[in-house]
From TrEMBL:
This is RNA polymerase Rpb4/RPC9 core domain-containing protein. GO terms for molecular function: nucleotide binding. It is found in: Nucleus. PANTHER family: DNA-DIRECTED RNA POLYMERASE II. It comes from the Eukaryota. Residues 29-147 form the RNA polymerase Rpb4/RPC9 core domain. Keywords: Nucleus. SUPFAM superfamilies: HRDC-like. GO terms for cellular component: nucleus; RNA polymerase complex. One of its GO terms (biological process) is DNA-templated transcription initiation. It holds the Pfam family RNA_pol_Rpb4. InterPro entries: HRDC-like_sf, RNA_pol_Rpb4/RPC9_core, Rpb4-like, Rpb4/RPC9, Rpb4/RPC9_sf.
Length: 148
């Protein structure tokens, strides 16, 4: 005995134009050159916006999803101090051979060594030598404040 299902009442999801992936070759489509933020930068930006809203005089109640996002960023943002966040951004932006996405990933993941970084961000494989990448990772580690 087979069951006859009624026709679908939802719209079909439009498939993305082109293949999007962050693998050995970055294929980010229209977002390829979009400025991206590390988790630390996102935390800083959101906190500054909220600080300005609170100072505005009007009562402002944070939406639950914003509160959850801030909680997440508080745990996973590797850099907490504004000066260190700016220094990390300057350091990463000096590596123009890397895409913005790769820079923000390096700033968020804070890998211990070049092998780990290239494993987590496969598109780095042929863009930067292990020695140069390790030097960059060591500089990032120096900027981290582990007491926060």
């Amino acid at each position: 005995m087979s069951v006859q299902l009624p026709p679908a009442t939802h719209r079909k999801r439009a498939l993305p134009q082109g293949e999007l992936e962050a693998a050995s070759t970055l294929k980010l489509g229209a977002d390829q050159n979009t400025h991206t933020l590390s988790l630390s930068e996102a935390r800083l930006v959101i906190n500054k916006v909220l600080e300005n809203k609170r100072r505005g005089g009007k009562k402002y109640e944070e939406p639950e999803n914003l509160t959850k996002t801030l909680d997440y960023l508080e745990v996973f943002a590797r850099f907490k101090d504004e000066e260190n966040i700016k220094a990390v951004e300057r350091l990463l932006n000096s590596h123009t051979e890397l895409e913005m996405f790769e820079r923000s990933q390096l700033g968020s993941l804070c890998c211990d060594n070049a092998e780990e970084a290239k494993s987590l961000i496969p598109s780095l494989q042929h863009k930067i030598s292990d020695g140069d990448l390790q030097e960059l990772l060591d500089e990032l580690t120096k900027l981290r404040n582990f007491t926060e």
